[in-house]
Amino acid sequence: MTTDQSNKSKSKSIAPEELLNQYNIAREKGERENFKKAWYFCNNQKDADELADLTARGIKQATTSLYYWYEDGTEPMPKPGELNIITDYEGNPKCIIETVNVDVVAFKDVSEEFAHIEGEGDKSLAYWRNAHIRFFTEDMKAEGLSFTEDMKVVCEVFRVVLVV
Question: What is the pLDDT of residue 29?
Answer without folding.
Answer: 86
